[in-house]
C-alpha cells in the first residue's frame, strides 16, 4: 500500500492526490470530487504515509492501521458509520487497535481515520493483499530414482 502521494490539507475536507509540486506548494486533485487545488507555502499538508497513531509505548503508521481495518472488515467498508457516537467509535477502534492511547487519540481522530479509510477503499487505493501462490516443488531426477528403488 503506497500512499506517499496522498495528502490531507488542513481546512479542506477529504484527501488529495499530488499531481505536481510548485515552488510554493503543490497542485493536487480531490479524491472526493476530482477538483484541482493549489496550496501555498502556509498550508499545513500531511502526507498520509507519514502520519502516526499514538499507541501505548509506541506509534503505529496510519497505513498499518488501514491494513488492520482492511483485515478486520474483510476488505469492505467500515461496518460502523463515522458519524456514530463517540463511545461507539472508541469501542470499534479498540477492536482494531487494542493498544491505542485513548487519552491522545480523540473520537474526532477515529472519525477522520474511518472516513479516510472508506474514501481510499472506494477509490481502490487500498486493497486486500492477494495471497501468494505456493511454489510447486520441483522433483529432480535424484528424487525419482530414490523413490523407484
Short précis:
The protein is α+β, with helices and mostly antiparallel strands. The longest helix has 16 residues.
Describe what this molecule looks like in 3D.
With 149 residues, the chain is α+β, with helices and mostly antiparallel strands. The chain folds into 2 domains: 1-47, SH3 type barrels (Roll); 51-128, Arc Repressor Mutant, subunit A (Orthogonal Bundle). Helix content is 31%, strand content 19%. The chain contains 4 helices and 7 strands. A 5-stranded antiparallel β-sheet has the order 4-3-2-1-5, with no helix packed on it. A hairpin with a 6-residue loop joins strand 1 (6-9) and strand 2 (16-21). Helix 2 packs across helix 3 (107-122). The longest helix is centred in the C-terminal third of the chain and has 16 residues, at 107-122. The N and C termini lie far apart (51 Å). The mean pLDDT is 88.
